[in-house]
């Protein structure tokens, strides 16, 4: 994940006791490095990605690390069309 994301999360959310109640949405998650970090920190995560391969890699990584229970919803497709589905 980017240093800016880590700082933003630390500044705004590290005092939250139950992070699973906060859902982080990423548009264009790629292979999910940012959402992986958020899931690892205990947040619920959602995302939209054009690439089916990217989504599959992300889901596999979370499954391998026993973090898949943090996934709220992941959509494959165009952001403009999928954003209203959240």
From TrEMBL:
One GO molecular-function entry: methyltransferase activity
Keyword Methyltransferase: yes
Coiled-coil ranges from the UniProt annotation: none
Matching InterPro entries: SAM-dependent_MTases_sf
GO annotation terms (biological process): methylation
Keywords: Methyltransferase, Transferase
Superkingdom assignment: Bacteria
Protein name: SAM-dependent methyltransferase
Natural source organism: Campylobacter jejuni
């Amino acid at each position: 994940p980017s240093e800016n994301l880590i700082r933003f999360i630390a500044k705004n959310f590290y005092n939250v006791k139950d992070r699973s109640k906060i859902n982080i949405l990423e548009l264009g998650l790629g292979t999910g490095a940012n959402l992986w970090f958020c899931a690892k920190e205990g947040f619920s995560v959602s995302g939209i990605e054009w690439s089916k391969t990217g989504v599959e890699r992300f889901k596999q990584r979370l499954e391998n690390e026993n973090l898949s229970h943090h996934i709220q919803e992941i959509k494959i497709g165009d952001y403009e069309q999928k954003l209203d589905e959240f």
